Amino acid sequence: MVSDNDGEMLVHSVEHFFAIELKKGNEKDSKFRYAALKKAIIDAAQKITGSFAAVIVDPVTENMVSIKAGSSLYMGQGHDVKGGSFIIVSSDLASVLSQTKDIVANKRE
């Protein structure tokens, strides 16, 4: 793949490494999938240079993992009367604060 967009390269690289990791175990096991996703993100991040921020979601389990390098990444949680609970993620703090005042603290694993 050829691209000048760091974020696009990150996502495609994660897809590549995630497919490799899923072949190593039971892809129906949610704990295995989460570990495979985290490993894929770490492997992809080691190959990518540049500035990016992303939230990668496993389409099967809907587990989310965030990653950033050189960019800001803010996550907030809130509740809407119509839609219920939600999580918002953005590299723009103002957009998160416009929806919620509950910012999730950074957790490194």
Provide a quick synopsis of the model.
The protein is an alpha+beta fold. It contains three helices and four strands; from the N terminus they run ααββββα.
Can you characterise this structure?
The strands form two sheets. Strands 1-2 form a two-stranded antiparallel ribbon. The longest helix has 18 residues, at 30-47. Helices cover 37% and strands 24% of the residues. A hairpin with a 3-residue loop joins strand 3 (74-80) and strand 4 (84-90). The model has no long low-confidence stretch (mean pLDDT 88). Helix 1 (6-22) packs across helix 2. The protein has three helices and four strands. The chain starts with 5 loop residues before the first helix and ends in a 12-residue tail after the last helix. The protein has 109 residues and is an alpha+beta fold. The protein folds into two domains: 6-62, no CATH class; 72-104, no CATH class. The chain is flat.
The proportion of residues in beta strands is: 15-25%
The strand order across the widest sheet is 1-2
User: How helical, in percent, are the residues?
Assistant: 25-40%
Main sheet, how many strands, which sense, barrel? 2 strands, antiparallel
Q: Based on CA inertia axes, which overall geometry fits? A: flat
Radius of gyration of CA atoms, rounded to a whole number = 15 Å
The N- and C-terminal alpha carbons lie at a distance of: 29 Å
Instruction: Name the structural class.
Output: alpha+beta
Low-confidence stretches: none
Quantity of strands, as a count: 4
Listing every helix as H and every strand as E from the N terminus to the C terminus, the arrangement reads: HHEEEEH
Overall tally of structural domains: 2
* Number of distinct helices: 3
What does the average pLDDT come to? 88
